[in-house]
Amino acid sequence: MTATDIPSPPASQDPRPEGLDEAAVHRLVHTFYARVQKDALLGPIFGGRIAEDAWPVHLAKMCDFWSSVLLKSGRYEGRPLPPHLALGSDAGEPQFARWLALFRPTALEVLPPDAAQQAIAHAERMAYSFRLAIGFHKGEDTTRIIPYG
Ligand code: HEM
């Protein structure tokens, strides 16, 4: 058996889209939260919970989160649900709709197209699972909650 007979490993099931790297993740997070902070609905919600001087820490955490999602870096080790459950009526349908309405165009603008689709699909799944968990917590009929996308 020669070296050329050795089968090559199977192609990755989840190839990294072209142009998707830590710099792209940084661009996504910083552009998105700059827009969130200026948004009439979401800005005050974030502003009320993240002090001005705590933003760099929040942004670094969100870079870790998106790096783990998109680049499988494993850097984020937090639990995303509890702070969202604690938001009460500030995490309702209008807020999730606005969050996604800001996130989708930002991802399409700053990421390569395949990466943007991955990021949007992940955000939609997480938003849906937050809505389910929040509805369940409130004793609502969660079968009424429809997924995005
Ligand atoms: C209604 C829409 C949303 C609102 C108002 C919201 C608000 C917030 C706020 C205020 C924090 C900071 C909490 C704190 O440090 O005390 C936070 C953290 C976070 N958010 Fe959201 N969020 C929303 C949707 C989402 C979605 C859709 C995702 C996922 C794609 C997400 C992912 C995260 C993550 C990973 C953290 C960090 C949690 C941790 O480990 O501390 N959020 N969010």
From TrEMBL:
CDD domains: TrHb3_P. One of its GO terms (molecular function) is heme binding. InterPro entries: Globin-like_sf (IPR009050), Globin/Proto (IPR012292). SUPFAM superfamilies: Globin-like. Gene3D superfamilies: Globins (1.10.490.10). This is Hemoglobin. The lineage of its organism: Bacteria, Pseudomonadati, Pseudomonadota, Alphaproteobacteria, Hyphomicrobiales.
